[in-house]
Design brief:
Blueprint (H helix, E strand, L loop, with lengths): L1 E5 L4 H11 L3 E10 L15 H8 L3 E6 L5 H17 L3 E3 L6 H13 L3 E3 L7 H10 L3 E8 L14 H14 L10 E7 L5 E13 L2 E13 L1
Parallel strand pairs: 1-2, 1-4, 2-3, 4-5
Antiparallel strand pairs: 6-7, 6-9, 8-9
Helix pairs in contact: 3-4
């Protein structure tokens, strides 16, 4: 089965890609670049480096822009998937959705309309278990966005490791924060994974944060052989 993966460059879509590659043939990545930084559907922090991530992985990327208007952005997603299906002869679409019914239902509707199988390998996975699996599998993931109390600027750019996971578990108990950010509390960017052919090294970045909202902005990177 030929699959396309909805890819943001964050941990969930990257891990879903990893799982899909072990079972089927992934022929393309599909990235939706939203001009609306508060998109209901799409990850936005550092979406611009998906080109380099795709190069590091070795899978072609189809990149499509959307204005990010609620519900209207779904038309852009449908058109992107339709285009990918035509170019790559897709049989199915993979998502990194864990708990978001809002996202999963809308993607399923599009897939049904286009006669594509919708595959959600992370659906309802325990979030702490997910984070631990990523660390154990030697993923290099940084926190690239924070959007909830008590997260602050100090979290931006932090690598997700056992120490960070332990802190997130404490915040989950105290403030009901989703440790994997399923409630929009945080966003991530993957710099390396076991299946990457090259790793991504940051060469310039800046933090833009106020109170409990902020972005780790990747300004430049380089690909390094592994």
């Amino acid at each position: 089965m030929k699959l396309g993966v909805l890819f943001s460059g964050g941990k969930d879509s990257t891990y879903a890609l990893d799982i899909a590659m072990k079972k089927e043939t992934v022929v393309c990545l599909i990235a939706i670049v939203s001009k609306n930084k508060e998109s209901y559907m799409f990850h936005t922090p550092n979406i611009h480096i998906t080109d380099l991530q795709a190069e590091a992985i070795g899978i072609p990327l189809l990149k499509v822009e959307t204005e990010g208007i609620k519900e209207k952005e779904l038309e852009d997603l449908e058109n992107a998937i339709k285009k990918a299906k035509k170019i790559y002869k897709l049989n199915g679409i993979v998502t990194g959705t864990i708990q978001s019914v809002y996202q999963s239902k809308r993607i399923e509707i599009i897939c049904d309309k286009l006669n594509l199988k919708c595959i959600n390998p992370l659906w309802m996975k325990d979030q702490v278990e997910l984070l631990n699996e990523l660390v154990e599998n030697k993923y290099n993931i940084i926190i690239s966005g924070i959007f909830a109390y008590p997260l602050d600027e100090s979290w931006l750019g932090q690598k997700i490791d056992k120490n960070i996971i332990a802190k997130l578990v404490v915040l989950q108990a105290k403030y009901e924060i989703n440790p994997a950010g399923e409630g929009g509390e945080l966003e991530t960017t993957v710099l390396d994974a076991p299946f990457f052919k090259k790793r991504i090294v940051l060469t310039d970045f800046e933090k833009n944060a106020k109170d409990n909202s902020g972005i780790f902005i990747i300004k430049s990177v380089e690909l390094v052989d592994k």
